[in-house]
Amino acid sequence: MRLLVVGGSDAGIAAALRAREIDPSVEVTVALADTYPNYSICGLPYFLAGDVPDWLSLAHRSVQELRGAGLELLLEHTARAIDPAAKRVTLTDGAAHEVAVAYDRLVVATGAAPIRPPIEGLDLPGVHVLHTMADSFALNESIGGRGAGSALIVGAGYIGLEMAEALTTRGLEVTVVEQFPEVLPTVDTELGGTVRTELMAHGVEVLTGFRVEAVGREDGALHVKGDSGLERSVDLVLVVVGVKPDSVLAGAAGVEIGVKGAIRVNRRMETNLPDVFAAGDCAETYHRILHAPSYLPLGTTAHKQGRVAGENAAGGSRLFEGSLGTQVVKVFELAAARSGLRDDEARAAGLDPLTVGSVAFDHKAYYPGAQELHIRLTGDRMTGRLLGAQIVGHTDAQVAKRIDIPAVAMFHELTVDGLNDLDLSYAPPFGSPWDAVQLAAQAWTIQWPGNALNLPRAEELEARVAGGRGSGA
Amino acid sequence: MRLLVVGGSDAGIAAALRAREIDPSVEVTVALADTYPNYSICGLPYFLAGDVPDWLSLAHRSVQELRGAGLELLLEHTARAIDPAAKRVTLTDGAAHEVAVAYDRLVVATGAAPIRPPIEGLDLPGVHVLHTMADSFALNESIGGRGAGSALIVGAGYIGLEMAEALTTRGLEVTVVEQFPEVLPTVDTELGGTVRTELMAHGVEVLTGFRVEAVGREDGALHVKGDSGLERSVDLVLVVVGVKPDSVLAGAAGVEIGVKGAIRVNRRMETNLPDVFAAGDCAETYHRILHAPSYLPLGTTAHKQGRVAGENAAGGSRLFEGSLGTQVVKVFELAAARSGLRDDEARAAGLDPLTVGSVAFDHKAYYPGAQELHIRLTGDRMTGRLLGAQIVGHTDAQVAKRIDIPAVAMFHELTVDGLNDLDLSYAPPFGSPWDAVQLAAQAWTIQWPGNALNLPRAEELEARVAGGRGSGA
């Protein structure tokens, strides 16, 4: 059985390795457009910050390791067309020669491409996006080689904030511009405000509610203009406003396209075409709470989808169990994490959410170094079910693995109060007898009418069902 | 409704607070033998280390806060007898006056007492146990007031190792003696060996496989003798070999006693006597994997059992969802954690476990400060179900909250390979696209016959069922 994988990043390599792992007789070929298979795109900001001196160390696995695992790698091979009837993919190699590769099963893992917002002057020298190793080298040249002293970052999402830290670490004066009212719009504004404070404490200029409209070159500098009178002159502009699925190749071959332009897949990661799978940032993501396709391009998800696609392509039968959009970002000394739905997202999905914010120490306050964690839990008023969690706190406060507690709980459809039943670890230097997420659950539960025995809970719920979901207390 | 709680530590206070929370009309009285309600016993080593300068800060809540929550506190009231027919408890107060308190519902939360092993001379001055605030003050006096320069600790469990660190921090020469072959016998010896190395690197003398037999006083020092020629002269001896349930009061009143002398309870935390509940270290613990009563005295469990007992005593209906024995300990720069069953425990329970050890970095190796995590996962060969997890690694490596990932997974009966489906957070400074516990799960899965498609999995399982559980590969 010949498995062809188009794309050599997280999803593609995970698919290739898993297929070989469960059936070593599968012949696996991976074609990728550049020469950087299995590189950690998430590591680019740390390479650019100087935290990672050698960019070669960004590879999850070397070319030798991948070949050692039995993968045939076609480097610098860009896929041009899929012929699903002939089961063949046409590619061009580095010398522009055309190559045809036949397959029995195909995994499309073409990833995503940076969104280019409608800003004039994006093609000027010194204006960058950040998605590939090549982007990274170009940006590094702008910072170091040309000695940039100041930078403006368009977009205050994950990459924007990581790059704000990275460029500050490299000694640049950094301005971040975000069109939403607060930075890190993936979390509630209350928590985004904490992140803004951290950015400002490290000298980053934060401009929210502004839209950048044009970049021009004047007197050797880049001149940035936006609405509401925004004007800044800087040496470097970085545009990081998100990504869109790279589904052109698949779409041209008749693969059905779904949410936000991503390749439509079922939970086996199959497309509508026989023997054609898709995985990673080019594909839809089954959302575990919404039970519906969504678009959540994350490295973790790409690995999992790739693994499922590879297993099924090799003859297995596994479902992708879904994403909760669990994610975390480091911003200087803060970690900001979320999993599941925010209040507004739950409401938009037709649920009746209750969101309660609370503050708890990461470990017993009497033990030195205790840090405040700002936690927001969203639960369903009707059922008490946990729908979402957000945590912001110090990088020493185990925020990343603490968000995994509600993440695993939501994976299993636990209620908010059910968090209090979980047997979590505790020692005074690391936690509390009730972990901070359990204290947050108790804060939520106190505000939830279903908690109190002396309220007519059953009748109240009936009344709400009769009155529709929106009538909750 | 009058609720009486006997015991003012974790379980008792949790019961009292929860009863008031869900029904503020309940009159709650808490009787305790000393004057330290709601103190963090787990914090004693950190007070003794000097990390917690003020012992008052060890209180989870002050007397004022507890009274503010509507609890009537009877300090220095020792319960002497329960009359279940008359629904009355007889106590003696600090002045030895007898007091009778009537109840409608009773929660027994009398906790545990330190085990006193058969060692001669345990009553000598300078020989200590550590369980109460009074023990703590006495030990502190021996260390500081009398200027001890050396200490021998009998028992290398959690408290023993925390105290080895504490006394080292206080400048004492410390010897730890453990009768088992390795320190921290709650984890596998492979991981215990890592902890031993850490102890020795900090100057602690570690003697395993020795049994202490006698302590005598000679020339102003304590002379410790054991088997195999063990002899040491020290200024201070600390005996911390575990605890046993304090179930005498309940037993005398006709309450049924179960596992290891603990009060028998059902999952509502009810004893065999009407309206008498028990919770915490005096009571049995329903084990979530074994589906059977066990004895697992842990502060986390005490809080949860107390909360369930208080809720039910106030008229609610909640089950204690069980313990996995999840725990973590800090030993100098190491954290050692476990949850669920070890291989030998699973085997003793009639299961057919497979345990696989692996090593993974806590976060991407290219980001500075990556630490090795030593992980051991135990799964059921028959079903693939996750049965246990152990992690040892640096205190900066989020070990405590990382063990919570398998803990929450086991709570929901996930398989080992199912860990790979969990949507966990990732950023290069905090983790990997596959978290370390997922990489450990992959290492386990590769060794599990159920993983490979090209093995006759279904037939093999049938054959195993036919041949009995012990015949697994």
Provide a compact summary of the structure.
Chain A is built from twelve helices and 25 strands. Chain A is an alpha/beta fold and 473 residues long.
Summarize this structure as a short list of keywords or feature phrases.
disordered C terminus, alpha/beta, 473 residues, 5-stranded parallel sheet, 12 helices, 26% helix, homodimer
Write the layout of secondary structure elements.
The structure is a homodimer of 473-residue chains.
Chain A: E1 2-6, H1 10-22, E2 27-31, H2 44-49, H3 63-68, E3 71-74, E4 78-83, E5 88-92, E6 98-102, E7 105-108, E8 112-114, E9 127-128, H4 133-145, E10 150-154, H5 158-169, E11 173-178, H6 189-201, E12 205-208, E13 212-218, E14 221-226, E15 231-234, E16 236-239, E17 243-245, H7 248-252, E18 276-278, E19 285-287, E20 292-294, H8 299-313, E21 327-331, E22 334-340, H9 343-348, E23 353-361, E24 372-380, E25 386-394, H10 399-411, H11 436-447, H12 457-467
Parallel strand pairs in A: 1-2, 1-7, 2-3, 7-18, 9-16, 10-11, 10-16, 11-12
Antiparallel strand pairs in A: 4-5, 5-6, 8-17, 13-14, 14-15, 19-20, 21-22, 22-25, 23-24, 24-25
Helix pairs in contact in A: 1-8
By DSSP, the count of extended strands of chain A is 25
Instruction: Calculate the mean pLDDT score of chain A and round it.
Output: 94
Shape assignment of chain A: globular
Largest sheet of chain A: 5 strands, parallel
Going by helix content, strand content and strand pairing, the class of chain A is: alpha/beta
Enumerate the strands of the largest sheet of chain A in spatial order, edge to edge or round the barrel: 3-2-1-7-18
Identify the most extensive interface between protein chains: A-B, 84 and 84 residues
The percent range for strand residues of chain A is 25-35%
Our measurement of the CA-to-CA distance between the termini of chain A, rounded to an integer number of angstroms, reads 59 Å
